Every structure is written in structure tokens, then in C-alpha cells.
Amino acid sequence: MASSGVWALFRHVAGRAGQIIPLLVGVLVVNFLIIHAAPGDPVYALVGNYPVPDSYYKQMRHDFGLDKPLPVQLLIYLERVAHGDLGYSFAQRQPVLDVILHRLGPTVLLVGTAWAVAGVVGIAMGIASSLSPYSVRDHLLTGFTVFGYSLPVFWLGQILILLFAIGLGWLPAQGMSSPREEYGGVRHYIDVARHLVLPAVALSLQFLAINARLTRNSMLDVLKKEFITTGRSKGLPESRIIVRHALQNALLPVVTIMGFNLGFLFTGSSLVETVFGWPGIGRLLFDSVSTRDYPVLLGIFFGSTVMVFLANFLTDTAYAFLDPRVRYQ
Amino acid sequence: MAQSLTKNPGPGISLGRSTARASRLRTMWRRLTRRTSGLLGVGLVLLFAAVAAIGPAVAPHSPYAPIAQPFVHPGAGYPFGSDNLGRDVLSRAIYGTRVSLVVGLAAVFTSTSIGILLGSISGYYGGAADAVLMRLTEFFQVLPRFFLALVIVAITGPGIGKIVFVIAILSWPPMARLVRGQFTSLSRLEFVEAARALGYPTSRIIFKQILPNAVPPAVVMGSLDVGQAILLEAGLSFFGLGDPNLISWGTMLNIAQGFLQTAWWMGVFPGAAIFLVVLGFNLFGDFLNDLMNPRSAR
Fold it and tell me: What is the ipTM of this complex?
């Protein structure tokens, strides 16, 4: 019995993993189409706005088979990416893959923190609301959700800087660490944490609101179910009903949405990083737009879709693990 | 997604604690607040629509020319202050309204048309057409929208028409899925069977029999999409990819970013405008949802 459960889970996971490959090829086809939709020569999009010597131009035309028919060019492009070659950034004088990997750490730190804050605080707020539906507290949450959904995240970032960095002077406004200080050990981590507060708050607010709203609605749905009534009539303590019976079931859809929202957090992160001068992928994206460093732009788009697919895949797997009904479908 | 997040669920159970009287009061209170927020949404949308329509006539100054010293504080004469080049922030914000609304509405009109077309084909015919279209929809739905829009506009060059096109091309999947869902459930109902039995042509069944029933939820989703499209345009402009010949709120925030220390008003006012217009469309969408779907509002 147990082994058949493991087998079903494995089959489910393998099936999901198999779906990622056509998606990745699809994304690369999109990249390829953008390169060819660029005005002028495709080399322009492959190199960026950078003066290249004539010999290099000829080399690029040859390497990418630009004198061959389009389908052949596509195959050449796919093969290059499959070998980990995302192109070369002339503005940074490094392969695109290295440029991106170098900036990944700060983004993962920011996105991870915001994601965790949005999860913990959002779920707590949602539970609190669900326990007294249609109260003043609950209405405040509804209002807060609509607000969070309408706020441009980059404006929110600017407001936070104006209030807490420039106005009150409590927290630093720019960067990931203090440039003039040479902190070591624990003081360095405290310094980074202080720099992290405002961007993480700006990035998490909208998702916090989403999680809170979702938890609330999901809890209210579950609390209507018959097994809750059964639990109450058995005389179980209310705290046990809320935590063991209601919450465990109510959190399933929340976990799913949180997983799928990771992709949106990466998008929002690019705007937040730009506002706060956070040295991650988003800031790199902004700089690459200004310097017309197209290979890096295309690389970031491809990299971010890989992250999104990975996040969705992990969410699916976690869901199949948590909810046995899914794997037997 | 936006729809399910801001929508109130059905009547909650009262957890066996409240009396009937209290729950009736609560229902009345809820109706009142729903109506207030709905009216606020309608009011905001109408206000910004009016500003967009007559803006250039009422703007106190030219939005392009320097009319004051740089960095004049908000106050008499210049309610929103002046920017780094001495231009009037209020006049620029007024002109920016037009870009945001035009982009938002045009993009959603286009994406809704695509969504309805693909969704109805998928839902009505089913089978292979449905399978192919739904795989395509899923693919578009998982792509990181903002990054893709950014890459396309950055590489192929800016322009308001292109921005509308890119936002539309990236926004249709949820609409297509919604319409498909409506079609699959509606086309099994008796009145559609009857229309088929009467030998009505397919186009008449689709457009006259089924589509009108799918319109209410599509309108609600479209109204919520306008807010998201405006945010997307603002984000692109904030990245410096707005139409260089037009004034956009996102572009104003992009410029303000460099002067946060000296001139808070350069960013606060255009950002507040984005927030209010998006809030307006979101509340308006919820309001429409309650009007067209009374069951969820009760």
C-alpha cells in the first residue's frame, strides 16, 4: 500500500518534470523570435548596442548560421543554449551566464525574505480574520487587500524611502551594505539585514495581502464542512479544531498560490531592486535596459522562466505530497 | 486571479454564535460598505476619465516647458510643485492620465477580444482545437509577463502602440480560460441543444445564444484587468521604456527616483495617481461583480 503511494507520487512528479522541457523550448523559441523581430540585423540583438569590429560581426553571422534558413538557425540557437551558452555581454565583458549567476544571491535573499514574511504574516492575519468574519478587523483586511493589489510596488518603495530613510533616518535607503564601513562577522549580517528591511517590506506587502485574503476565505470554507461540526459535537477543544482540523486543510490552496506567486515575486523584485539599488538580477535588468545590453536581457528572461517553472514544479510536487488525492488522478 | 481575491465569498456561517438579528445588521452593514466602496470605485474611474478627456484644457501650464525654478515646493501657484527642469508637476500628471487610461483600456479591449475569440472556439468545439489552444494558453500564462514585455519593448523599440500590443498579447490567457469555461458548461444546456435542433447556424449559436451569457463575468474580469494593464505600463515606463514622446506617470516616477532626497513631490503625486486609478478600476470591478452576480454579494 505504502509502496504504491510512493510509486504514484513518483509517477506524478516525473510526469510534471517531463512537461517542463517543451515549455523551455517554447521560451527559447520566443527569445529567438524577439531576436529576429528586432529592427535591423539580428546581430544587433545578439550583441547589443555595442560597436563590434567587422571581423567579429562576420564571425557572429557564421556562428549563428544567419545566412541559413530560419529553422536551421533556430536549431543552432537551441543547441547553443543546451550547452549552457547564453551569449556574451560586451558591456560587462563576461559570458551572460556568469553575469546572471553573479547577481543571483542578492535576489534570492530579497525574494526569499519577502516570500517568507508574506507567508507567515499573511497566513496569521488570514486566520485572525476568519475567526471573526465580517467584524471590523475583517473589513480592515478586505480594504488592505484591495489597497495592496492596487499599489505600484516601485512607488511604495519610494514612499518607504521618503518616510523611513530620508524622513526618520531609521534605515538605509540604498544598496545591500554600507559602502564606507568594513564590518566583519555578525555586524556585517546586521548591516545587510538593516538594508534588507525596506525592500523586503515593499516587495512583500501585496503578496501578504493576497495570502491573508486567501487564508481567510479558505478557512471560512473549511469551517463550514461537516467534519468540523462533527469535531465540535464530539466536544473537541476549539483550539484543536482550528489548528489540527481546519488549518491543515485550509492551507492547501494557500501553499499552492504561494508557490505560484514566487514567479511574480521575481518580477516585482526587479522594480523594488531598482528603487533600492539592491545589487540583484532586477537591478541588472534595469542597467541592461539602459546600456542596451540585449544578450543579458534575453538571458534574464530565459533564466526567470526557468525559475518560474521550477517554482511551479516544486509547488506541484509539494501539493501532491500533501494531498494524496492529486497523485491518484 | 484578481477576481477571486477581492470578491467576498458567499454568506459565511456565523459559527453558531451570533443571533439572527445581529447577522441581519451585519448583512446590512456589508451591503452598505460594498456600495460605498463600489461608488468610490465608480467615482475614481469617472474622475480620471474626465481628467483624461478635458485635461489639456484645464491644465494650468504647459507640461513640456519650464515655467518655474526647478524644485519649487508644492504650494500656491504650483500645487504639486515643479520638477528638476522647472516643469509643473500638476500639469504633467494631468497629461499623464490620458496615456495611462488609453493604454489600459486599449490593451484590455484587445486582450479581451483575443480571449473571447480563442476561449469560445476552445469551449464550443472542444477536441483537438481545445487541446492545442489550452496548451498555448497555459504556456502564455506561466511566462513572466513583466520581463517578457520589458525584453520585447527594449529590443524592438518603444512606442505607445507597441506597449498596448505587448500588454494585450500577454494578458489574454485568463480571459480565454474564463470564456472557455462558460462555453463548455453553457453549450451542454437545453437552450443550446434546442438551438442546434432548430438548425441554427453555428455562428448564431455562438454569438446570439452562448456569448451573451458569458459577457457578465468577462466584463468583471476586464475591469480588473484594466488596473493591472495600467500597472504594467507604469512599470515599463519606470524602467525608462515609456513612449519618449508622451508623458506617463511611470516615466515621472523614473525621473523622480533620482531626486528623492531633494524633491519628494516629484514622485509622490504621479504615484498616487497610479494607485488611485488602479484602485478605482479594482473597486469598480468588484462592484460590477456584485451587480451582475447578485448571489455572491448577498
Answer: 0.83
